[in-house]
Specification:
By secondary structure, the chain is α+β, with helices and mostly antiparallel strands. It has a single domain, classed as 3-Layer(aba) Sandwich (Glutaredoxin). It contains four helices and five strands; from the N terminus they run H-E-H-H-E-E-E-H-E. A five-stranded mixed beta sheet has the order 2-1-3-4-5, covered by helices on one side. A hairpin with a 5-residue loop joins strand 3 and strand 4. Helix 3 crosses helix 4. The model has no long low-confidence stretch (mean pLDDT 85).
Length: 128
Amino acid sequence: MAKISIQDLKKIKEEQKARMVLREGAQRAKITVHMGTCGIAAGARDIMVLFRDIIGERGLDDIILTNSGCAGLCAQEPMITVEVAGQSPIKYVKLDSAKARRIFDEHVMAGNPVEDFALARGSETTAQ
């Protein structure tokens, strides 16, 4: 097993510090990439990498990027759910990199849902 360097420890510390800030309620938005087997096969991993890269390039520390298992809508993959503070969650479907970039800029950053790619608004457990 490789030894952990000081730089590795600093990176881990900064990542954990950013997560703590997000947990304390300072986040602007949360993006969940649905990565069940069907999602991965349809390109969800590329969507996850794209969001990770955009967040890193822009130095954003107020956006949570996470993944989940299958959402049960295999024919609609790749899918994401975007939750912006103060708004109902939006589930987006049949994504590619261009759609994902548009969703990031318009919904995540500006708070304006992109209805063109949206499947549903609200939680799966409540009627909103």
